[in-house]
Amino acid sequence: MDATFTLTLDGRPRTLTVDTRTTVLDALREHLDAASPKKGCDHGQCGSCTVLCNGRRVLACLSLAVAHDGDEITTADGLAPEGERHAMQEAFLDSDAYQCGYCTPGQICSAVGMLAEAAAGHPSAVSGDVAAPPVLDRTEIAERMSGNLCRCAAYVNIVTAIERVHAGEGAR
After folding, report:
1. What architecture is domain 2-78?
2. Domain 87-166 sits in which CATH superfamily?
3. Model pTM?
């Protein structure tokens, strides 16, 4: 059975008709030509497909597209105006936080969402005092990013890039 719905992708309203079993990832890649989110494991275990849905991190391979009627989906390509880079993208480049680059769009979306979650006071599994504002040290950042895997093991530089943005060292 097909369903027609509208979502906003990287700031542009888009209407599409897909089978109701279509995931957000497949809708983005196969129907809306969004190449940024990647299909890694297709089981929600690697994070390569991470996008932001209404500002929150979502594993696009596990979410049904029709459930996002009216939602705003942001990929790594839509984080900054066309022709510009988001501060997290700049930090990843400056910190050499990528190797092959396959996981990078998901890592960047996850990092942006994670910083927003921390700013909103959401604790993690390693937060010392869950009632206090989170302190984003390297251990806290690594825990919050643990759902995003990097086959090339660029984790040290990924954490450094996130630290830089959190400290305000970026273009934005």
Report:
1. Roll (3.10)
2. [2Fe-2S]-binding domain (1.10.150.120)
3. 0.94
